[in-house]
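Form P-L/3: holo structure prediction, ligand 2'-deoxycytidine-5'-monophosphate.
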Amino acid sequence: MKKMKIAIDGPAGAGKSTVAKQVAQALSFLYIDTGAMYRALTYAAIKHHVSPDDEASLKSLLDSIEIKLVDEQAKTRVYVNNTDVTDQVRTDEVTKSVSLVSSHGQVRKEMVRQQRLLAEDTNCVLDGRDIGTYVLPNAELKFFLTATVEERARRRYEENIQKGFKQSLEQLIKDIARRDEFDSNRSFAPLRKAEDAIEIDTTSLSISEVTQTIIGYVKERV
Ligand code: DC
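OUTPUT (holo model):
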């Protein structure tokens, strides 16, 4: 039977990764967190003192490391050369540079090649910015999650508090808006809703309502 691929795109903080993970778990599909791959490269670049705007050196670095995603029950573990960097890829330092690192064409082409390989011949859910438009244009189901920037910042704020660090809500709104702007305006495969994607405004929905909505569409399809 033909494998089903589900693309979930949208801006930072729209709830994509939590929803994608839950959908994948409910359907026993593989979950591929493509943002974590760009974060892993950004982490390696900081460690090796490679500038986030040096495209050629970033590409060489990417060619010299192995990024691995291991799907676990509660979360995806991220490895660079077999070292677990799951927590390190979520730091503020990585978050601040990842948009620039991921804007380079050479970096994206290689990442997309790896993402397509991971998704080959598997039932899977991928979340990112360009999955429906570029990585898997033939995905059976595409979703584009949105929410107001204030709501997305508020969610990050709560997450941060749970992790034990505090950043002002105003600063988070600015950071998220800047990242959206950058991700949407880069020249190579920018953040964009695919024409055939189903848009879900998550501003006033809970995570489980979004998950259930997506699963509802999947069930309709099979
Ligand atoms: O989803 P996230 O916040 O972990 O993504 C981190 C960054 O990676 C985001 O600012 C844009 C980039 N990204 C991308 O350009 N394409 C993807 N498919 C996934 C993420």
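COMMENT: Residues 68 and 79 are 5 Å apart (CA to CA).
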